Amino acid sequence: MIAEVYIDIPAKPVNRPFDYRIPDNLTELVKPGVRVTVPFGRTRRLGFVTALKEKSEFKQLKGLDSVEDHVPVLTPELIELGGWLANQTLCSTVTAFQAMLPAAMKADYKKLIVIDQIERLLEEDPELAAFLQSAKQPIWSEIIKAHPEWAKRMQRAIKHGLISVQQLVKNQAKAKKAAAVTVEAPRSLLEDELNQLDKRSHRQKEVLEFLLKQPDLQHFHETIQKLVKHGLSREAIMKLAEKGLLKQGYIEQFRDPYNRPVDRTQPLALTEEQAHALEPILTAMQREEHKVFLCHGVTGSGKTEIYLQSIQRVIEQGKQAIVLVPEISLTPQMVSRFKGRFGDHVAVMHSGLSRGEKYDEWRKIREEKVQVVVGARSAVFAPFKKLGLIIIDEEHESSYKQEDMPRYHARDVAIHRAKKHHCPVVLGSATPALESFARAQKNVYTLLSLKERVNHRPLPSVHIIDLREELREGNRSVFSKELLEKIKDRLAKQEQSVLFLNRRGYSTFMMCRSCGAVVKCPHCDISLTYHRAQQLLKCHYCGYEQAVPAACPNCSSDAMRFFGTGTQKVEAELNRLIPEARVIRMDVDTTRKKGSHEKLLRRFGKEEADILLGTQMIAKGLDFPKVTLVGVLAADSLLHLPDFRASEKTFQLLTQVSGRAGRHALPGEVVIQSYAPDHYAVTDAAHHDYGAFYQQEMLLRKRAGYPPFYYLVLISLSHPEPAKAAESAERIASILRRKLSHTSQIYGPVVPSVAKIKDRYRYQCMVKYKREPELMPVLHQIMQHFQDSGKAQLQLTVDLNPVTLM
Ligand SMILES: Nc1ncnc2c1ncn2[C@@H]1O[C@H](COP(=O)(O)OP(=O)(O)OP(=O)(O)O)[C@@H](O)[C@H]1O
Ligand SMILES: [Zn+2]
Ligand SMILES: [Zn+2]
User: Fold this and answer.
1) Which keywords does this chain's UniProt record carry (predicted)?
2) Cα 172 to Cα 642: distance, rounded to the nearest angstrom
């Protein structure tokens, strides 16, 4: 038999399978979807088997080395999906496969040292020989780490042909195992032993007595750790094992990242609007019909309950469900809503988990130990075999688009998978992406609307404050008089406030007041950010850091000042203005440590603070009953980004943040401070008017020729030499102009707003099109050409439907 294998070659993607002969002893084990180790060139690499066949067109085939998985890690559906993904996003198939699996499954390439001439080695370097012989698996990098001085000696031994180096492909994916015991002997033998033991062996007696009380002795299988917890003696257990009554073995264990009690919840009686929205979803599931629903419901309208009740039905059908949630709203609060309803049927996947934890959650899915996964973007690849439903909450979130290879959008993958499984997709949001709402308008998606909050709770009333006015009246604080009054009022009433600022750090950048120069990163064309805690200026692209300069690097003036407002500065000002208020600050800096995010929110939930001050990460998913005031400190911080989605993002953010207020019995109020108080993104958000915003924004997009009226492709390249970068960019633009139809518009090449990153000069070309049958073939050609022509220095990326143009 012959296996087709996609090989993990990072440098130069080879986008086709290679044929390998399957040795006789492995025929049973090699199946489509397993990972294998194969010889490739002079090395060994990991690969994915995608198909088996009888014959190959090639003659001299190499054989497979070994098989890494007992159970295929890719299902037939995922193998197909990988091919589709590679084609859609112009990446190699292996890259697509890797994106679908937890990181622990990536190969770990190591160099193993093998002794070839032991006698001569013993003579020449007895110390090294002894060491290598005693090591279980002598790995080059590990030895060098422990004994750097041995590098020379090992190199000499290699030169003399005494030892050699072999490429070893290590499988990082390991299940955690715990020592366990089973009962080997029949009940009668245990009883005999119990009677024979003398007094001094009372610890062994305890173990036997415990075992004899077990109802199903034959299938008894328990970890030693658990038995010891029951008060039994480890030594006694071992003694009984030595006697052959018990047998030692292992139990595979799942690390449980959410190992904490959750209160079980019951389905709520639905409101009329909820029932209306749920019904068509259930019908589609019943009929095994693929449909995409757009559930547009105002904040607090109870979308989550609709998700929960449709998942309930999925489980009853014996099928499985995927729930995608944006990374930052994958809070413990969110997770416990699903765990509370479905308990152990839920796996959770997000970036906060360790490698091992992620791998274990993935295995629970693969081994069908759970029916539901709640996770961030990549959970869309959960290897369920009988998908009954895919839900994407906050479907407008830009984090559903992956920003590196493969550049996929989770929405597209979800719809592709759901088609294969004949099941519905539910996209939910209070502020759907313009593209999605437009599709619903055209009946490509089915619109489900929830116009009211649960139990007719009012949406919060919103006040817009004109910051220019405040400044004219001499108020230089980041707080308008009105907002400050309202915060004090909540404090008096013992209610809570949430303050939102779309920035991080103490101040964003450093500028010279004398000449206007901004301190920039020497490797990237971007201003450095001041980090107060370390007193450093840092680059957010490449990590470069430097001390704060005393004088302007441009004109030597000492008038260097920090500009911009960050959460730290606001916190300091709050402490000054309202010293009695207890403030929790949540931003990248205070939530860096694992679990700190959760801890801060728990404290706020327990009312240990009056004010929650934070960045984006507090904009979503939070649901605290005592929050009656939300303040947005600078609504326009997003509005002026060079991005055609700037207004849409501003509208979405303002609506989401406002939605945190008055979600329970107490009515809520929102204060939006802005330098552009008349901008429709601000006023429409204040009026909770998605419809008006949609109309206005669609008009502008149509005029400017942006999505959803046109599709975009962004082709970006970078090169260490500016001239080479420019030349390649010109070539690409001219290929596009020559080969695409004249209905498509080609822009560029242009230098993007960040002109240089990590000492590489950047160029971009953009294609706008409505229908372009030649697009994919031409893009594939361009990728192929620039990869093959040995231009190793050139980096080229193609981004279809980019979420940002920066
Ligand atoms: N049928 C119901 N009866 C009573 N309470 C409900 C019902 N449905 C939802 N709720 C409650 O209403 C609140 C808001 O619901 P939920 O968080 O699901 O809204 P949402 O639409 O997801 O909001 P957002 O878009 O702001 O996240 C929650 O506290 C939830 O428990
Ligand atoms: Zn200067
Ligand atoms: Zn940099």
Assistant:
1) ATP-binding, DNA replication, DNA-binding, Helicase, Hydrolase, Isomerase, Metal-binding, Nucleotide-binding, Primosome, Zinc
2) 42
Q: Is the pLDDT higher at 504 or at 202?
A: 202
> Binding site: residue ranges?
512, 515, 521, 524, 539, 542, 552, 555
- 360 to each of 95, 96, 337, 366, 478, how far by Cα in Å? 22, 21, 21, 10, 46
Q: Are 386 and 315 in contact (CB under 8 A)?
A: no
What gap in Å lies between CA 555 and CA 322, rounded to an integer?
Answer: 57
DSSP string, 566-624: -HHHHHHHHHHH-TT--EEEESTTTT-STTHHHHHHHHHHTT--SEEEESGGGSSS---
| Closest ligand by atom to 528 CA | 3
DSSP string covering 18-81: EEEE--GGGTTT--TT-EEEEEETTEEEEEEEEEEES--S-SSPPBP-EE--SS-SS-HHHHHH
Residues in the chain: 806
**CA dihedral (651, 652, 657, 660) positive or negative:** positive
pLDDT digits (tens, 9 = 90+) for 669-719: 999 998 888 899 999 999 999 999 999 999 999 988 889 999 999 999 999
What is the rounded distance in angstroms from the CA atom of residue 781 to the CA atom of residue 43?
A: 29
Domain boundaries along the sequence of the chain: 2-106, 109-171, 272-455, 461-507+564-701, 711-800
Cβ-proximal residues to 198 (8 Å cutoff; 6+ apart), any chain: none
- Pocket residue to mutate for ligand 1, from 304, 374, 393, 451, most atoms within 8 A of Cβ: 304
Which atom of ligand 1 is closest in space to residue 337's alpha carbon? 31
**Among the listed residues 690, 273, 681, 666, the one whose alpha carbon sits nearest the alpha carbon of residue 458:** 666
How many other C-beta atoms lie within 10 A of the C-beta of residue 191? 13
Instruction: Supply the pLDDT for residue 528.
Output: 81
Cβ atoms within 10 Å, residue 5 = 25
Nearest listed ligand to the Cα of residue 299: 1
**In angstroms, rounded to a whole number, what is the distance separating the alpha carbons of residues 669 and 662?**
7
For residue 505, the model assigns a pLDDT of 39
User: What beta strand segments (E) does 325-371 contain?
Assistant: 346-349
The dotted CATH code for 272-455 is 3.40.50.300
- Rounded to the nearest angstrom, the distance between the alpha carbon of 274 and the centre of ligand 1 is 10
Spell out which residues line ligand 1, taking CB within 6 angstroms. Answer: 268-271, 274, 297, 299-305, 430, 454, 621, 623, 659, 663
CA torsion sign for 399, 401, 407, 413 is: positive
Q: Which CATH superfamily is domain 711-800 in?
A: Ribosomal protein S10 (3.30.70.600)
Question: Which residues carry a binding-site annotation for Zn(2+)?
Answer: 512, 515, 521, 524, 539, 542, 552, 555
Predicted pLDDT of residue 506? 41
Q: What's the CATH number for 461-507+564-701?
A: 3.40.50.300
Instruction: Tell which residue, 412, 799, 802, 433, has the closest CA to residue 643.
Output: 802
- Give SS3 for 303: helix
Nearest bound ligand to CA 545? 3
- The CATH architecture that domain 2-106 belongs to is 3-Layer(aba) Sandwich (3.40)
Q: Same topology for domains 461-507+564-701 and 711-800, yes or no?
A: no
**Bridge partners, residue 511, by sequence:** 518, 561
**What is the distance between the alpha carbons of residues 346 and 336, in angstroms, rounded to a whole number?**
10
**Does residue 571 contact residue 585 with C-beta atoms inside 8 Å?**
yes
Complex confidence, ipTM: 0.94
